[in-house]
Fold this sequence. Notes:
It contains twelve helices and two strands. It is mostly helical.
Amino acid sequence: MRRYLGVPNRSAQLADVRGYMRKFWAACERVPALRACGFKLLPGQLRPMSRVREALESEPPPRRILLERADVTAEYESWTRALLLGNWATSPAAHARFDRMTSVHGPVEQQLTKASNSNPWDMLASRTGCRGCGANKIAANAAILNTTSLAKFRRQHHAFFARARELLPLQQSPLLHVYSENLTSSATVCNHTMERVFGFLGLPALQENCETHKLKLDWSCNIREDATCSLDKFLTQTQ
Length: 239
């Protein structure tokens, strides 16, 4: 995205957060096929919090969706596994693909050391959530875990969401709080939740709300099958 907006690197992006966001929103408006446009921020991606405020101070004011996992213990356990295994897959299906590959090809760090450009493991590593899989990185992550107890993780979790809620007044930036469990518990609850999300954004809900495999895109880039699928391709094909 930075490349598309003409921003050379992260340092330049952070030096002028407001300017970067102006370019971002302007790019969104140039693509009429987009029903909505937004970005995801995870804890620690923008520091200090004043920079997060800068990212949100725009015209018209953005709508904020806070996606929180209610079961913080389960979140901590998932985070722990991801740190130690390198499996940051974002869905049960992606987790399963990762697990199948590790059972067939052996431990992650060994496979990444042996991988060549033609090895399907490269595709897995780059596209299904394997990050920081090398032995050195996993050792460093283990050191992080040694200083992060469940109690500390819980405090950090609640502090982040409290700051995120209070960052801007609701009249300046409307807020919808969603729990991730409502997207994974059942199709009925997921569909109801997504209807709330679309309503909050002022958009009609999709018939395929929680069945993304049934979605038919209005452009030819198939994320699952097209290795060259990219933001540039999307923006040029939908203008």
